[in-house]
């Protein structure tokens, strides 16, 4: 297809701001930093957009673009687990129909750029460049389109550290955002789609990599705003939805090391050395380990120092970030062997434990169930009793200040339903107002200072403006599951009866239909160190 266009106009543009929320957007609007986004908000209607549990990127965006909860689409985290093994999720783990495929079945075309967990793409009417969890230079749809984008837009990168600007620099963020916008505009000129969906990840990334850095945050949002202005001019959409997958804010409470708590109550076994689960022995986890001399060492004082650091909660990632800030990462890294760092830290012995946190981003406890896990320690007949014991135990946890640690501790059925329920944590542990945090570490005190001063909040943001959205209608109880039904309704496409959301009240005239079962591609593994490295850099692994 060439760059020519027909008379068809873009009916709907969806702009995804990862971690966008009022507490971030309002000051930027008031200071005049994001005039284009401010204008969209002022001209339309806006409100909070409640995320799912857990409110993390890897699971939340699939919930948004399918309109279904993780129990139906199958993705609960950045990781998927098979017994005691893990893989980083990709689009083949999403077992429900993305909204652009549903639109395609009704003769409508889409351009989708940078939406997380969309690699590898499937056939549909339009074009797609994957976002987070995809490898650098991922396969796109249609085949070969990424090469065209790179030629037209002077290169393109999925991740900022892949640019020629310094990693985590403002210039690196700005260039990545610019590439995102240019690629989307190019594809829209080329495809002339009915529906456009572009996501900006750096609005989340900057808080993980440069927490509290006002200059960096403003630069990221200003760069996004400039691209949004260009996109609006290029595509001239009839309607615009601005959406986020979750919010962002300071963590002022405490960090709770759930696995250490479970060990002290007899539910968990730990060990030193070995691989543990997930297997963090890959080199990408140990950012200190740079240089060919890293493996030459002797035990003794170095091991003692690393063991003390581990017990204090100072992980390799935290040390690496601190050293990198003062320019010492490489020289120190040449003296610290990765196997010594691993051996210094205790690990969960998952096969021998009764219950454990597999990944902090799951926000829950997995029971090592006989017949389900490879070396299950809890008999099926004891499952309900053990689960209730753990719910009662964790519900009573208070912080060192005497405040409740969790807002909710509940069976997974409170949040999930569907054919993939068995893949979920058995118990969900929702921190109080998301002002506390949980981690999966062992070998340290139950409570400590949060490693990440900024982290996800459950309340995100939605704004709707355009000729087909009803003016003046408040958006007060919208959820992340409502976005896909809203898209369907605007295009007069029947909503999948299995979707968990409802159309936002700014659109009318929805109908429902029972669609044939979705036939996803077989699950395939994304074995790419850069993907895992990126998730580790952001603190998700």
UniProtKB/TrEMBL annotation:
Top-level taxon: Archaea
Record field: compositional bias (Acidic residues): 510-528
Signal peptide: none
Classification via InterPro entries: Alkaline_phosphatase_core_sf, Phosphodiest/P_Trfase
Chain residue ranges for the region called Disordered: 507-528
Pfam families in alphabetical order: Phosphodiest
Matching Gene3D superfamilies: Alkaline Phosphatase, subunit A
Molecular function, one GO term: hydrolase activity
Keyword field: Hydrolase
Protein name according to UniProt: Predicted phosphohydrolase or phosphomutase, AlkP superfamily
Organism expressing this protein natively: Natronorubrum sediminis
